């Protein structure tokens, strides 16, 4: 049985990540906790709403109700990167070459590593933001679709339309597809080469967590009593194909998913605090953590795929060592 090193904190954990193999936990009150030769805490935002892991720069980017964007380094150093004035920042993303993007109201902003900021206005509020895996390109999730921008140039944006409220965005690791979460219980996708639509529906709840498998062959999602894992191996993605359903539990809902860094395995967190891992090939399951006090809200593997850091809506967090 894997071992769990628990950390019980009062509050709602929004993100749990590894920086330099050090576990970090970001909470809704803006406090960021880390387990680095003991439990240490720094304060970033005054009211945290969103985070993004900048793996290349080895930092956690945070933003929130105070209209500010901060970075937290592995040693706990906090730096203010940007400000949107009095507007709440409701989405943030980390990109290539030290760039970050964030959304406030109807505007998306891109801050380059040299501190220069470009802004992009939209007719409706910016709900989600993501960087493409290659090149300097962002996707903005909005009402009735998504908009693609090339921030380094002044070219015309690409509009991807689909009726409904789109709340988050993610590019496939090869950059061929864009997938959005929606206010309704569904995902929507576009094949970027030709704009073909991909509708992924049938969820009993909203999808709040997405994770691409190694090499981007699968997209795991929350929002059902199982992790719904869509196949993206073919040139048309999941169109006409059924998803895998991993870790099915009739009495609980999946609230968080995190794919293994090198194997086709997904860690699955549930609304009762349970965490298990499931393998795509044969659906074999391993229990990683028994149910706890609250829903799992954050999961991440370390680089070697041996440890998982997790956080919950009630603040019971910790590190799972797979090897025990």
TrEMBL record:
Annotated compartments: Cell projection, Cilium
Coiled-coil annotated residue ranges, if any: none
Principal location: other
Matching Pfam families: ANAPC4_WD40
InterPro entries given in the database record: Apc4-like_WD40_dom, Quinoprotein_ADH-like_sf, WD40/YVTN_repeat-like_dom_sf
Keyword list, A-Z: Cell projection, Cilium, Repeat, WD repeat
Domain of life: Bacteria
Anaphase-promoting complex subunit 4-like WD40 domain boundaries: 261-322
Keyword match Repeat: yes
Signal peptide from the UniProt entry: none
Nuclease is among the record's keywords: no
Annotated protein name in UniProt: WD40 repeat domain-containing protein
Organism: Ollibium composti
Taxonomy of the source species: Bacteria, Pseudomonadati, Pseudomonadota, Alphaproteobacteria, Hyphomicrobiales
